[in-house]
Structure formats: structure tokens, C-alpha cells
Design brief:
The protein has 167 residues and is mainly beta. The protein has one domain (28-166). The protein has 1 helix and 11 strands; from the N terminus they run αβββββββββββ. A 5-stranded antiparallel beta sheet has the order 3-2-5-8-9, with no helix packed on it. The longest helix has 18 residues, at 2-19. The chain is elongated and about 95 Å long.
Length: 167
């Protein structure tokens, strides 16, 4: 009787151990952000901060939340739409509100791309990579952005700049 009980416990224990599966933890499961670096148009090798920068996506009421709003910075990471192309942004130099009206210099920048869904793992699911990145600046007489250069047409990570903006 003791042997049968021991054997039953051994079988049940083996079944429990075999039924366990490894915990899936997602480490690399984020869709990458588009990294913009700002450069001096007169000295194209030098970074140049944009003062009181605000970026708002077309159709959005709130500014992009991936960096401090109205900060002075020479680099930002912004999200592209994973459900459609293009994504349009209003980049606002010297952003300020006067009676809830934006008074900064607003340039409209559009990014066209193709969307590639990539399966990462069961825990992470799918991420979206962006290929064939192509910016389009709406030109105007008051543009503060003078030119744009694409450094990397494929957005698969956010560790280096994808686009250089000269102002």
C-alpha cells in the first residue's frame, strides 16, 4: 500500500512539473519611435537645440508625450501611426499660448512609410517596423525648418537618429 501511494505521489508530482511552462516576459516588444535630431543649418555637423519645441500629431489635441512639452532639445523620439501611413506632425518652434491660441512658428511635417508587422514572441506579440521612410515638409514662406535629411529609411529601433532636421 505504501509503495502504491508513493508511486501515485511520484506520478502526480511528475505531471505537475511537466505541466509548468516557462514564464514569458516581454523585453523587446515595443514598436520603435522615430528619432529626430536637430542640426544647425549653417554648420551641418553641429547640433542645434530647438527652443520651446512642441510637437502635435495631426488630429490630436494634446502634444506628443514622448518628451517634455515646450522643452529646448536637439533630439526627440516621436511615435508613427502603426495603423496607416502617412503620419503628420506640427513642429512648433518657440511654442507659447496667448489666450489659448498657439503663437509659435508652426511647420507641418509628414512621414510616409510602409508598415511591417514582426512577430517577436508569445509574450510580446507583434511590433511594427517602418520601412521606406520618406519625409515631406509643407513649404511656406515662414518655415523654420530649412531642410531634412533621412539617415535611416528603416525604423526598427530607437537607438540612433533616423532623420536630421536643419534649422
Amino acid at each position: 500500500m505504501k509503495k502504491q501511494f508513493f508511486l501515485l505521489i511520484l506520478i502526480l508530482g511528475s505531471m505537475l512539473i511537466c505541466a509548468c511552462e516557462k514564464d514569458d516576459i516581454c523585453v523587446d516588444g515595443d514598436t520603435p519611435l522615430l528619432v529626430l535630431r536637430f542640426y544647425d543649418a549653417a554648420d551641418t555637423a553641429s547640433f542645434k537645440s530647438v527652443t520651446n519645441l512642441r510637437i502635435i500629431g495631426l488630429g490630436q489635441e494634446a502634444p506628443v508625450n514622448t518628451f517634455s512639452d515646450r522643452s529646448s532639445t536637439d533630439s526627440v523620439a516621436i511615435p508613427l501611426r502603426a495603423d496607416q501611413s502617412p503620419t503628420q506632425f506640427f513642429l512648433i518652434l518657440d511654442s507659447n499660448d496667448e489666450d489659448e491660441v498657439e503663437t509659435g512658428n508652426i511647420d507641418t511635417l509628414s512621414f510616409n512609410y510602409t508598415i511591417e508587422e514582426v512577430f517577436v514572441s508569445r509574450a510580446c506579440g507583434f511590433v511594427v517596423n517602418f520601412n521606406e521612410l520618406n519625409p515631406d515638409l509643407t513649404s511656406g514662406s515662414d518655415n523654420w525648418i530649412q531642410s531634412i535629411e533621412v539617415v535611416d529609411t528603416t525604423v526598427t529601433n530607437q537607438f540612433s537618429a533616423h532623420v536630421k532636421i536643419f534649422h
